[in-house]
């Protein structure tokens, strides 16, 4: 269902980015990169809210002609960005939410690995396969 | 209306549009000079009212946009200023005609117009005309501003009259329907009398009046009119105009809320007058209220006054939130009309600007998102570029720098779209550069040195590729080389192998035309591109300054060094000083380089590329000292591991030299890599002292070089090793050629030698030389050769001690000192025979035939030139490896008393351990020929030695050495004495080699005692003649006198002694006949007594014998065994045996 999944570090550089149509990877790079503007804006707006009331899910960042870009930010300001096909109307907000939660859990597992250096590219196979499962569900 | 004005902002609604245009031939420069001056008159306070008029100038305005002037009056061109050049009066009518033509273009909407004529003088110019102003030249036109102000005022009068005219239209009069160009045909045949239609007309007119009020500076009035218009139009569903009315409302509110302005550029332009504007606004408000308070002003409007507007005065102005809501609404209404795309787009842009001021980026982005999708008619490429640039600017405005960069990049790509016949690579490049901050990319490679690169590598790489391509197409190869090097340097970790190959290939092809330099590239717009050193091609991991090779290492004279150390600090140790020195040392290295000598720096490098990397012109970058760098070229294999590279250079002056980095040429790009900028480089200091030049010495020897290198314990390195094979006892001359291969004269030379510890005992001087002859040739000029001769003499043990002892103990005869009558006995006892009998003994010579080695180091300390003045010298070591093959062995040594008590025989068993025939000779010319591995006994008659006559070892020696050492020393001295007497030499005729043999090591105390002259000297005198080994003759029957004389040379008193004379006859068959009572009779007693003898005293006793028969008799003088004699060594009582031949009595 997702066509592109990206994990972006606190300093706004990609820790992980993968997209399904491999031939047009750069397009998704651009898409996710520009979506960071919106994420930044939303996060800074949210900064005023109390920490414990903060909603991690940012909702739709922006729609494009063919895709919808959703965002999610962890408390440590790590961002998850997901691009889904806008033709897929079956996807509800709730499903997107649960997908992000899955992604977050998997990311937490990656961080728990003592051999992983925070800030490095994520190369975990478990994480990769989880992302693959999220992408394959529809395709 | 098709050309959107992206620069529009809400404030533009209150401006009057004036077009300034040239007519005829006016140079662009002159036109814009005047245009600028005209533009400076952008706001005018109208006299005798507090209202302010804002003017918007355009030098280009499409007439079709003008057609929308009724819809929004700020789109209407109300003024025209024409600028023209006119040199002569003849041209004047023509010029004036052109002015009219120009006027026709905007004719319908123009309120007034002006013509500024430059250059015309004379009659025509003097006519006072309101619409034409004459100026003699572009320089001489001070009154332009004034004329423009007058012009604006005239515009204001028209505007004001129009406003009042519209506003005071009688309600009974038919209000004309205002409409936009595309509506015109829609209203054909519509019932003009219907209520609906009337309302529509009213609403539109209200809106129009609102616009005019806004332009005339009556903000509050306009708000009221807009509100009424919205009400009217909403009721008749006239959406397009409703949108316009809402937008007008928004604009007026924005002007009210944000006097600073919302448009970026226009705001900035107005900034100098902003205080004035704010003031004007403040002044304006009470005035506006006045208008509102006066209900008459409203009632005279003629249009049904909407009382709700008056009641909700506070509501008149929209709150900031409402502004956005109304904008949204307006835009949604505009969206219903395809032909109003431009209006919608512009409204979006205006709303975004407002939101940017309100800092509501999210909503602004929504407006922009909407704007992106507004589909205008087929846009020209130029318009597309403009549109994307504006979008990018707006995104920038709301702080979405990534989005902004994205659109800027799209705009850049649009500049060079394949459909454009003349791609604007320059513009494209410029736009691309502007996107850099959006992608967090700086073109300074230093920013990437800190840690690993973190960013959107894929996106950044794409951008860099585009920069490279654009700069190449721009025809600036230097620029593309710089960008490409930057790409390679900073994105190396992200490039795939294939990409690495491609990038380097294209880099090489670019650099073949324009090599990459280390210079700063400055772009025309002021941006500078710092140089990109290839610190990763290859990657340097470690930089080590290497000391000079040991033979060239300069050393400080000891005395000077001590002096230096003492002046540094009075303390032997102080932690403070040690600390500060430690820091100093971290940078400075404690060895020296020498001026004029090649110095080396070792780099550990590796190649990260998947192919062979050719690094050319790799050299050192240093400071502090003039340095001649000798660049190296290297070729690193693909993905090599750490690879040592040595860079060399020659310091030309003295001082402190600091190695700052290195330079390379890779793929045609020159790089200066400074060590400070390199991450992860280990360096053991980079500063070294360069001392003045010293000479260089090269050593050549007569001996072959040795593969065997010495391992001296002190850590000195030995430059040359020579080896020689010698037989034990042999002497060889070693000729050393000293050549000065440096540039300085060699002035000083000192030679020392050191024999490396060896278990072998060495006799005599191993190495000896005379330096004087060599020094006579000094100073040695560069290129000159001096010779130096060293004598090598090897004299090792010629036997082993145990062997000797063993032999001596079983050879009792020799020790006992029995008087053997054979005077010269040469026992021929070949070893072969004895070998099976005594295997351990036989194995010993075989064992000692093992080759022994001797090692020594010759140290040459030399100095000269300026370095010598500074107190430095150099040390050159020559290793000497001598293999000593055994020549002869003395397998045993023994002594035999000679016939004379003053002499003895030294018996040496000589063994030839060589494989050649060997001739041994002793002091006398007795020669003994020994075949290979043959052992023979050699007897040498020697005079006994009087060791006491040797001087005792000097007193100072005695102080240090204990008695045992003293004893050893004495023994050695004795050995030397004996050896020199013996002078045993050997010769190998087949090899033509000769040498000495030494018995020094063989002599033990026992033997020494034997060869020593006893301190008690016994003399036997027969018939008054001293008798020793000779036959004394006497006659039968004659008594002969026998005198025994004792001379005491020992330091103690001896005696008394009792001596008995025992005569016997030797039958020569081993039988001694002692029964001679009948043959010999004693005259007197046969026992003599000697009194105690004091040191150096003498004593004698006398007796007589009478031989009764003829024959050979021997007298054995025997001591009585009493206690005193026991204390003294046996050998002291060695009396000569007396051989008396009794002859027939003479007849």
TrEMBL record, chain A:
KW Kinase (keyword) present: no
Gene Ontology CC terms, in alphabetical order: cytosol; endoplasmic reticulum; Golgi apparatus; perinuclear region of cytoplasm; TRAPP complex
Subcellular localization, as worded in the UniProt entry: Cytoplasm, Perinuclear region; Endoplasmic reticulum; Golgi apparatus
Name of the protein in its database record: Trafficking protein particle complex subunit 2-like protein
Gene: TRAPPC2L
Organism per entry: Rhinolophus ferrumequinum (Greater horseshoe bat)
UniProt keyword annotations, A-Z: Cytoplasm, Endoplasmic reticulum, ER-Golgi transport, Golgi apparatus, Transport
InterPro entries on file: Longin-like_dom_sf, Sedlin, TRAPPC2L
CDD domains the UniProt entry points to: TRAPPC2L
One GO BP: endoplasmic reticulum to Golgi vesicle-mediated transport
Record's keyword annotation contains Transport: yes
Family, as annotated: Belongs to the TRAPP small subunits family. Sedlin subfamily.
UniProtKB/TrEMBL annotation, chain B:
Domain Trs120/TRAPPC9 first Ig-like: 540-668
Subcellular location: Golgi apparatus
Keywords assigned by UniProt, alphabetized: Golgi apparatus
GO BP term (any one): cerebral cortex development
Domain Trs120/TRAPPC9 fourth Ig-like per the UniProt entry, residue ranges: 1029-1142
Trs120/TRAPPC9 N-terminal domain ranges (all copies): 186-259
Family membership noted in the UniProt record: Belongs to the NIBP family.
PANTHER family: TRAFFICKING PROTEIN PARTICLE COMPLEX SUBUNIT 9 (PTHR21512:SF5)
Name of the featured protein: Trafficking protein particle complex 9
Name of the gene encoding the protein in the UniProt record: TRAPPC9
